[in-house]
Amino acid sequence: MENEKTIGYIDNLVSFGFIAPKRKSLIITDKRLLIVDASSATSIVASVGIGYALGVFGRGITNRVTKENVKETTEKLSQTDLDQLLNSDPNNLALDIASISNIEINRKKIIIKTDQKTFKYKLGNPDVRHRKMDTYSNYVDFLKAALSNKVTAKNP
């Protein structure tokens, strides 16, 4: 999209897939939100192996192991040509800012409501839960910069 400015991103969104959790990222621009695949072979293998072997405790370890990998992937994706990124994977999608009616975010999940559909993701970055870290505050700031009054943030 012409003259589009990237504001920031939210990495490590988790939706549950058939075999392993799917890692998504939200790239926030001044015109749209892009929901893109941020999974890698490493994070999928770790999710399946550790999660299967250790259950709930294993999923916690997996989040720590994959956090930096997904964050680095998201940072690189946010700096690429966004239209090309959208076309690179049929599961990537863009939501026009005008079509978003509300975004609710807390330290555990994010819910994006549009006129047509609702998107729900868990926040998989373990740094979000630590109140002394700026990760959650940055996520909220990025969203408010793009959507201002459409963002409801809880558990600051």
Brief account:
With 156 residues, this protein is an alpha+beta fold. The chain has helices at residues 41-78, 82-88, 135-147; strands spanning 6-16, 21-29, 32-37, 93-96, 100-105, 109-114, 118-123, 151-153.
Q: How would you state the average pLDDT, rounded?
A: 79
Number of domains: 1
Percent range for helical residues? 25-40%
Strand order of the largest sheet: 4-3-2-1-7-6-5-8
How much of the residues is beta strand, in percent? 25-35%
Oligomer: single chain
- How many β-strand runs? 8
Continuous helix count: 3
Q: Give the helix/strand class.
A: alpha+beta
- Which residues sit in consecutive blocks of at least 5 with pLDDT less than 50? 41-59
User: Radius of gyration, Cα only, in angstroms?
Assistant: 15 Å
Describe the structure.
By secondary structure, the chain is of the alpha+beta class. The protein has one domain (about 5-155). Helix content is about 35%, strand content about 35%. It has an eight-stranded mixed β-sheet, with helices on both faces. Strand 5 and strand 6 form a beta hairpin.
